[in-house]
Amino acid sequence: MNSFDQFTRQKYLNLETFRQNGAGVKTPVWFAQEGEMLYVITMTDAGKVKRIRRDGRVNVAVCRMDGSVTGAWVPAQACENPDPAVLAKINRLFDRKYGLVKKFFERQRSSRGSRDTVLEIKLIEEEQR
């Protein structure tokens, strides 16, 4: 089994980003998977987005809703993709995966005027580590 297989059919991803001092910040998030890419939708001004803009090095692991890790940590590279067309495409993936629950949370966020962005996450292959 390659490290990508553990993410198939899972609901939550623990995303570890890094502060300037090197300290890791772990955040459980919803994610979508397409091919060999993982996608996260989040607010443009979220701390994890700011940290990824500065340093795209991240670690990811399958987790429960509360963030408790249930799979192996895997190093990855993340970047922000603010393209509205990409956001629309990934939103459709999230709609299929999370259904009405997503609609509920989406409504709450839009009432606060949040703008969303997409984080693209590519796992670092074993031989590249």
Description:
There is one protein chain. The chain has 129 residues and is of the alpha+beta class. The chain has a single domain (5-124), classed as Roll (Pnp Oxidase, Chain A). It is built from 2 helices and 7 strands, in the order E-E-E-E-H-E-E-H-E. The radius of gyration is 14 Å and the shape is globular. The model has no long low-confidence stretch (mean pLDDT 89).
Which short descriptors sum up this protein?
2 helices, Pnp Oxidase, Chain A, 129 residues, alpha+beta, single chain, globular
Sequence-ordered SSE layout with sheet pairings:
Layout lengths: L11 E7 L5 E7 L1 E3 L2 E7 L3 H8 L2 E7 L10 E8 L2 H28 L4 E8 L6
Antiparallel strand pairs: 1-2, 1-5, 3-4, 4-7, 5-6, 6-7
CATH class: Mainly Beta
Low-pLDDT sequence parts: none
Order the strands across the largest sheet as they lie in space: 2-1-5-6-7-4-3
Largest sheet: 7 strands, antiparallel
What helical percentage do the residues reach? 25-40%
Question: How would you classify the helix and strand content by structural class?
Answer: alpha+beta
Radius of gyration: 14 Å
The overall pLDDT average reads 89
